[in-house]
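Exercise 7.
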Amino acid sequence: MKGIVFTEFFEMVEQRGGLDEVDALVEACELSTGGAYTTVGTYDFRELVALVSKLGERSGIPVPVLIRAFGEHLFGRFHEKFPEFFEGVHDASTFLAGIEDTIHTAVRKLYPDAELPSFEVKMLDCGGVDLTYSSPRPFADFAEGLIDGCLQHFGETRTIERLDVEGSEGKACRFIIR
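Solution. The predicted structure, written as tokens, is:
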């Protein structure tokens, strides 16, 4: 998992709980990195799982809620850091439809070692999107948070129906956005 995910997670924790909370979180986890991440480095996703789990313990907020909140936060940060992905895009459906062909293609050019999830996209007659998410990591909650963040960014009120693939443990699901 790319380091930008870790550094932005710490950014969110710092914004909400202060730098002392970030330090306490890192100290409470046994991380091979010691909590030192660079945005371009590649790290074991299990370290993020450990950090989020420990934050859940410390805050009393369920881990799925924290992961979705982080997805929402990260979408906003992506807009700030990578405005080129938003040029000429005026709605959530168009943006979501371009995840694989536009965003993931660009990320793979910059970071050939990036292990990205995949999204199969189908446009719906109602103007919505049917996204099938698949990943070697259990981050369907994170993907849902990114989708929520996308809808918020474009000021759209839509429903997200999430259909988890049985036995996938958060590694595969379908999102129907109407």
